User: Which sequence fits this backbone?
């Protein structure tokens, strides 16, 4: 007897709604067991976590702060995944976005102050796009495996950023602490609720534009085709190499924008604390949203809620930091594992005796 | 009508009594934001010891929470905001990199007391506190200078910021005072808390021939690495001899309890004002731990003598003459370095091998 996974030809509506709900319940139960073992009341804990993330406007604003970079990197990663380009380099592209933005903010101050913000974000996007373009060209021209190249380039980007803020960009008035000078206050991206900032609207607008482009334009259809059936696409005269490169430039630009916005709105400088794994969480967001741009917005808010609410595990329940991460991981795991049931059927086959 | 008025008045009084009592019973809520886990047996551990001493003194009057391993970046602002939103009355943040974020949050929550350890930014509701750990560091340098045989002393150091540079200089001044031939070799790790990196740096120094390791790091890894090679070390933060063994000759240690008790007391009775506290041996903010049995009596006497001079205010570690690495005079004989110069220190004294990057 053996267990076989067979791809579903059609996704049934019931399964795709039922699976996430059941996975979520399994998550809560699994997390609850671990919490109970750590001598915490699971029900109270979940209530605290929910309140910590969504309980009032101020709490929700902090969830939005986390959600904005997750939305943008999530959108970027989803876009690449659509053509089955496994871009796990969103982290590096995000870092380059932050570097590009910081460069303009710090060293292009001859520009009028009003021009500094839009121009710096543009340069950040370009930097992110170039960083994604490198593995895209390598894949399109030489068929170099992109999972490795995108991943390795993350480390290059992070180390280069470290070099900058430990070295030539270090704030001379910062008492030697690693981090650049602060950006001019007039050029900060404005906030509207607590620390939540205009990046939210930028992300939402981009998500809707992406949704429109992907479903309503010729180029969107070509991308769909490259992802689902490259041979057919080629026969229909779609330039696949160019398609890969274009999609990846866009994907990198979105992650770059995330990094740029994060430094322009939240950190106001380039420093070590800004690199906190958004680009990796983006992969989870892409999966859970099933590459749908609008869904990615909501999944990003949920993920951000899990991260922000997770603080309560320490603050209210008194669990150690490591335990908090375990619980967060446990809550996520069944949700991801659950996607397998929407994509595949599980059959038990009897094997013939040989 | 009069009756109703009277009843209303009584009701009002009763209510206000109940609420007043409730308000009185409400404990003063304090939160601590830590850079590492209290189990680091170093920096965070000592803050946690101080926190508990403070809690013992005020008992039910305070309700104290803490959060560990908070990154020095935008996330730290979220943590502090959440505490402030949840009705905490005072927040202590115990690492330099929290400074700008705490300052930002302090502006938004003017009714909350903020205390930042090791920074320089203050506000009406934000104070700083720190200790002159350079004083016990100097004393530990005397011991290292006397006890080194290879005349190579290693120093595993976190960030090239004035706080760390000051410590290295004070330690080296102690070493050179008793042994002008000994040199202090510095390796930067660019982290406060990373057991693996700290160990690697320690091993690199031991490979260069160091027979005593000192450190500005938050874990016991450098002393452990030294002990495994049969070498000695100078601990830091806490009395690391308790956790590693007698190879740790002595440790300059923090003593936050006295300060925490004092400043929380002022918050409770309403006399708190913003300040910049920088306490030394005299104020009991820093200490030199007990000696390892390996430290001979004559060295102990020498240390006790210098310690008494520092405590009485008769002499200070950074009294001239002080020379930089090139041998140029930085503080002439007979002069004393100002606190401001100490806080901005960004050069190495003679006897240090390494660069302030």
Assistant:
């Amino acid at each position: 007897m053996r267990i076989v996974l067979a791809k579903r030809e059609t996704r049934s509506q019931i399964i795709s709604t039922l699976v996430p709900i059941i996975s979520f319940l399994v998550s809560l139960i699994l997390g609850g067991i671990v919490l109970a073992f750590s001598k915490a009341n699971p029900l109270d804990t979940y209530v605290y976590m929910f309140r910590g993330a969504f309980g009032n406007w101020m709490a929700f604003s902090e969830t939005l702060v986390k959600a904005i970079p997750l939305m943008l990197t999530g959108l970027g990663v989803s876009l690449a995944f659509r053509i089955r380009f496994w871009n796990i380099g969103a982290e590096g592209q995000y870092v380059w976005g932050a570097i590009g933005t910081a460069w303009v903010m710090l060293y292009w101050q001859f520009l009028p102050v009003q021009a500094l913000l839009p121009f710096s974000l543009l340069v950040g996007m370009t930097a992110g796009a170039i960083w994604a373009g490198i593995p895209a060209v390598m894949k399109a021209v030489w068929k170099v495996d992109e999972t490795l190249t995108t991943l390795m380039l993350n480390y290059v980007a992070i180390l280069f950023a470290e070099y900058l803020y430990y070295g030539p960009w270090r704030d001379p008035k910062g008492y030697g602490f690693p981090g650049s000078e602060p950006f001019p206050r007039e050029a900060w991206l404005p906030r509207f609720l607590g620390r939540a900032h205009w990046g939210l609207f930028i992300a939402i607008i981009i998500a809707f534009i992406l949704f429109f482009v992907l479903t309503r334009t010729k180029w969107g259809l070509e991308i769909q085709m490259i992802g689902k059936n490259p041979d057919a696409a080629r026969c229909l005269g779609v330039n696949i190499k160019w398609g890969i490169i274009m999609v990846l430039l866009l994907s990198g630009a979105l992650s770059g924008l995330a990094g740029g916005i994060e430094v322009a709105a939240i950190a106001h400088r380039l420093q070590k604390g800004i690199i906190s794994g958004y680009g990796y969480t983006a992969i989870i967001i892409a999966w859970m949203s099933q590459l749908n741009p609008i869904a990615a917005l909501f999944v990003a808010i949920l993920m951000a809620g899990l991260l922000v609410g997770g603080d309560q595990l320490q603050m209210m329940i008194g669990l150690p930091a490591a335990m908090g991460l375990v619980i967060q991981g446990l809550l996520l795991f069944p949700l991801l594992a659950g996607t397998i049931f929407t994509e595949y059927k599980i059959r038990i086959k009897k094997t013939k005796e040989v | 009508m009069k009756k109703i008025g009277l009843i209303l008045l009584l009701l009002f009084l009763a209510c206000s009594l109940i609420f007043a009592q409730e308000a009185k019973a409400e404990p003063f809520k304090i939160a601590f934001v830590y850079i590492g886990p209290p189990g680091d047996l170093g920096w965070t551990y000592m803050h946690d010891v101080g926190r508990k001493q403070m809690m013992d003194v005020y008992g039910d009057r305070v309700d104290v929470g803490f959060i560990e391993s908070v990154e020095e970046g935008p996330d730290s602002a979220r943590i502090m905001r959440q505490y402030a939103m949840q009705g905490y009355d005072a927040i202590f943040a115990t690492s330099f990199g929290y400074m700008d974020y705490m300052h930002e949050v302090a502006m938004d929550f003017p009714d909350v007391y903020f205390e930042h350890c090791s920074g320089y930014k203050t506000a009406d509701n934000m104070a700083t506190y720190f200790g002159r750990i350079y004083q016990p560091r100097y004393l530990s340098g005397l011991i290292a200078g006397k006890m080194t045989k290879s005349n190579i002393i290693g120093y595993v150091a976190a960030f090239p910021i004035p706080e760390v540079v000051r410590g290295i200089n004070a330690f080296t001044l102690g070493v050179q005072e008793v042994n002008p031939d000994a040199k202090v070799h510095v390796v930067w790790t660019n982290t406060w808390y990373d057991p693996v990196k700290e160990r690697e740096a320690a091993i690199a120094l031991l490979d260069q021939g160091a027979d005593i390791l000192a450190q500005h790091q938050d874990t016991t890894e450098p002393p452990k690495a030294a002990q495994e090679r049969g070498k000695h070390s100078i601990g830091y933060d806490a009395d690391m001899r308790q956790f590693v063994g007698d190879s740790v000759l002595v440790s300059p240690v923090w003593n936050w309890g006295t300060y925490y008790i004092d400043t929380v007391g002022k918050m409770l009775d309403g006399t708190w004002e913003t300040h910049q506290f920088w306490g030394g041996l005299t104020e009991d903010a820093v200490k030199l731990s007990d000696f390892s049995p390996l430290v001979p009596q004559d060295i102990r006497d020498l240390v006790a003598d210098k310690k008494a001079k520092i405590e009485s205010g008769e002499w200070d570690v950074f009294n001239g003459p002080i020379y930089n690495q090139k041998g140029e005079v930085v503080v002439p004989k007979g002069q004393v370095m100002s606190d401001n110069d100490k806080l901005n220190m960004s050069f190495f004294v003679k006897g240090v091998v390494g660069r302030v990057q």
